[in-house]
Amino acid sequence: MKRWAIALVAMSAGLLASSAQAQQCVIYDGENYSGNRFSFRAGQSILTFNRFNNNVESIRVARGCRLRVFDLFGGQGARAIYDRNTPSLDGAWRDRISGAACECGFSREDDDDRREYADDARGASCEIYENADFRGDSYRMRDGEEALRFSSFWNNRVSSVRVARGCRLIGYDDFNGRGAERVFRDDVSYVGRDWNDRMSGAVCQCGRSEARQQGRGDPPSLRRRGSGCVAYARRNFEYSNDSSARWRHFVSDGDFEPLGRFLKDRVSSIRVAPGCTAMVDIGADYKIFVDRNVSNLGRVEDRADAIACSCR
Known about the structure:
Layout: H1 2-22, E1 25-30, E2 34-40, E3 45-46, E4 58-61, E5 65-72, E6 76-82, E7 99-104, H2 116-119, E8 125-131, E9 135-142, E10 146-147, E11 160-163, E12 167-172, E13 181-184, E14 201-206, H3 208-211, E15 228-232, E16 248-252, E17 256-258, E18 269-272, E19 276-282, E20 286-290, E21 306-311
Antiparallel strand pairs: 1-2, 1-4, 3-7, 5-6, 5-7, 8-9, 8-11, 10-14, 12-13, 12-14, 15-16, 15-18, 17-21, 19-20, 19-21
């Protein structure tokens, strides 16, 4: 009798272990783990959903596991990692997941593989994160991708970025590549007070796509005829983002914009797209017109307080 009891206990333990292994990650089509569900085994990947395509609203994840999710079939597109139970997916990923992979066998503090996204064999990329320290929802941008108008979820919501070796992420604080900008060439766990929850668009450039940029200081939209004007805080159209005094400002055709605190009385050079003219306010009663690239504004350097752009 005792042997039978031991055997039954061992069998029950085995069934429980098997059941737990079979449900390391679970997706649900309803909030609060309700509705239809699908359980992933540890190491299982389903990169093309059928019934659950764009129909996941909550996720359960066993301790030591995480669910890697994708918004396009085949493990493509934007991606995020869920390493804990989530009773309700937020606006960025609710009813958006098209594939997923369940990975187990590591500590939740083990974050090394997130660097893989930037350096993997499929090519270089840039990735933006909702929270500091590469936490929360994320969006991966491929080499050459121009997201100049973020969605309502991502607009003014970026707090950290990852940038693959040999790449750069150019972030803009206004739609269509306008306004102030910042260039990231490395992983940044917190973008800082000035840029936290401020980004409205971005461009990812790696290798050849960066080399295709026309001019060291040209935003992507300035390459087209009649597309706009750019004011720089340094001579020779140079800019970097080591300090706020080295930023640039893009103005679209037909717009008039007062220069913000980072460029007011700091403009040293101006670049214009073919067919455009920049009208620069120097104080209340004095204006200059610039219809070609000017690498040094000379006597009016560091005196501009507003700029308008007109193209034909």
